[in-house]
Write a structure and sequence with these properties.
Chain lengths: 139, 447
């Protein structure tokens, strides 16, 4: 049985609740995420066709385009961004998008780095609560 | 929620003796000038840019910032209201770049968009975003291949570059030093002239980590103009978040083959620095590439792996063809020179489009060199400043593309809902003439 609490490292602090959407494959948001709808559109990605808006997206790291951050900023503005992003290492792209969303729109989202072993226990569909201290609770 | 001390309404002065604790527990110490910018003594734009940089320095775990002497801004790509609002907010605050700065592709070809499906509203907003960055004093290069302009950096130069292909090329092929900068941060670095002193800016972090060895790959295949694009696509996937070192290169690749490799590896993966033993400047030997250390892992790349990677780049299944598209990254003078003799005296099937995406500068040079005229006579169109991925140019009836660019092949199916055939430059020309996909696969079957 998975632990009820996971202690993550705060990259950008914030609180969010949402259903987990978990992948072991990295993602480029440019060419990979439709900010008009919140759908993952990268045809090469296992989550292609899945909507991530409002969910706690667990993706190990960003890949591909530098424009990933700008797509995420557009998604925050449009209300189609994930509620939080959980990664395996400190991902500067996701962090920057959240920080600039805060500066521009007063709307950041938590970005939390997890130990790979903890990340591996996450399951799509489980309800998660991300705390400002980086602690993730299974609800 | 916000981290205490960093309000969204701007930067707060660090109190005497107070320091920011970063994600790795390092303490960030600002120079006097950094602090002045953070305090707003250099104006509101450097203050905003520095406040974002300081928060990012904490994310990176930096203990200080350092100078850069050049920047390349990828934030020029217009996506929607947010990218425009960010650019215009900085411009309205009087932002000026502090170092020589080139600009990446924009969202519109200002002179040619009316020939395509771009809406007037999109063109107007994308043009406003271009103007915002021009007002900051950046050089209007409008290209994703700034390393092939007069803004090419030098070996060892500290720079802040956005645009994934350009980052990988600048670090790896030139030996300049940049972190993998994302849109929105590249411009903050350009305005302040500062970056967190971490990552690929630092010599010890540039050592190779993963060894990828070509195993039994004939030099004749390595000379094929698809080879490095295919290899890059494969390496991007294998490297994950490590710095790959490629061994077994038996040819001297032209610069545009390395450009294709960098773009492919930075699309299928997150490669910001690679070393090719005997080819790239920080890898004269295998030992040098690993800074005397050992690879964490070694993987052999076989012809079967390369064939599979090449197959992945083709997502179309028939011979139907609506458009041939060349130039991601932007077509260079050498590529115009290679294309011209292939099309000289020939004519593309008028039922399909043949488009080359490039920069104003390269088109001018190609024209001067006399290689543009035969390409236009062939029936090609040239789009400048942007590309089909960054500008909504394609009408909906265009469903099938052919390209020699792994980057186009990777992104077009997802971004444009098109199917793509990947092939050599000669295959692209032959297909355009035939009006359907024609591909000579002999090298890839027999090697």
């Amino acid at each position: 049985m998975a632990e009820q609490l996971i202690a993550g490292r705060v990259v950008v602090a914030g609180r969010a609740d949402g259903d987990a959407l978990v992948t072991s494959e990295p993602l480029s948001f440019w060419g990979g995420y439709d900010f008009h709808t919140g759908e993952i559109i990268d045809r090469h990605h296992p989550l292609a066709g899945v909507h991530a808006a409002g969910r706690v997206l667990a993706v190990p790291f960003s890949k591909g385009s530098s424009t990933t951050t700008a797509v995420l900023l557009e998604a925050v503005r449009a209300g189609t961004a994930p509620a939080a992003i959980l990664t395996t290492g400190v991902d500067s792209f996701f962090a920057l998008a959240s920080i600039v969303a805060d500066v521009m729109y007063g709307k950041s989202f938590p970005v939390i780095a997890l130990e790979p072993a903890d990340f591996g226990t996450l399951r799509t569909g489980e309800r998660l609560s991300v705390g400002a201290d980086g602690i993730i609770r299974r609800l | 929620m916000e981290r205490e001390g960093f309000r969204s309404d701007g930067a707060r002065r660090l109190q005497p003796g107070e320091q920011v604790t970063t994600a790795t527990g390092n303490e960030l110490v600002l120079s006097d000038r950094d602090q002045e910018m953070l305090d707003g003594r250099h104006g509101p734009a450097p203050q905003l840019a520095m406040s974002i940089l300081v928060r990012m320095a904490a994310v990176y775990g930096a203990s200080e910032l350092m100078d850069i002497s050049q920047a390349h801004i990828d934030s020029t790509i217009y996506l929607g209201d947010a990218t425009l609002e960010f650019a215009e907010r900085l411009a309205s605050l009087g932002a000026r770049v502090a170092v020589p700065t080139s600009l990446n592709v924009s969202g519109v070809d200002e002179c040619g968009w009316k020939d395509w499906a771009v809406s007037p509203e999109w063109a107007a907003k994308a043009s406003r975003q271009m103007l915002a960055y021009e007002r900051m004093g950046a050089v209007p290069t409008w290209t994703c291949a700034p390393y092939q302009t007069h803004m090419r950096p030098a070996f060892g130069q500290q720079i802040a570059w956005g645009e994934s292909n350009a980052i990988a090329f600048a670090n790896s092929v030139i030996g300049a030093r940049t972190e993998r900068y994302p849109d929105l941060l590249d411009v903050c670095c350009a305005i302040t002239g500062r970056v967190p002193a971490v990552g690929l800016h630092v010599q010890r972090h540039r050592a190779g980590q993963l060894l990828l060895r070509l195993s039994g790959i004939a030099p004749s295949l390595q000379r094929d103009d698809q080879f490095f694009a295919v290899l890059g696509h494969l390496v991007g996937k294998l490297a994950e978040d490590l710095i790959p070192v490629i061994g077994g290169i038996a040819v001297v690749p032209p610069e545009d083959h390395l450009k294709a490799f960098a773009a492919a590896a930075a699309s299928s993966g997150r490669v910001a620095l690679f070393h090719m033993v005997g080819v790239t400047p920080e890898a004269p030997t295998l030992e040098a590439a690993f800074h005397g250390g050992a690879p964490s892992q070694t993987i052999d790349i076989t012809i079967a792996d390369l064939r599979a990677a090449r197959r992945e780049l083709t997502t179309a299944d028939g011979r139907e063809l609506d458009m041939v598209i060349l130039g991601s990254p932007h077509f260079s003078l050498a590529e115009f020179r290679a294309l011209a003799p292939l099309v000289e005296g020939r004519r593309a099937d008028p039922r399909l489009k043949f488009l080359v995406t490039s920069s104003r500068l390269m088109k001018e040079e190609a024209d001067k060199a006399g290689v543009l005229a035969p390409i236009i006579a062939f029936g090609a169109q040239i789009t400048l400043d942007t590309c089909i991925l960054a500008s909504p140019m394609l009408p909906p009836e265009i469903k099938t593309l052919m390209t020699n660019s792994a980057k186009y092949a990777y992104y077009a199916p997802s971004l444009l809902n098109t199917r793509v055939t990947f092939g050599s430059l000669a295959d692209c020309v032959d297909s355009a003439i035939a009006g359907r996909v024609v591909r000579d696969d002999s090298l890839w079957q027999s090697s």
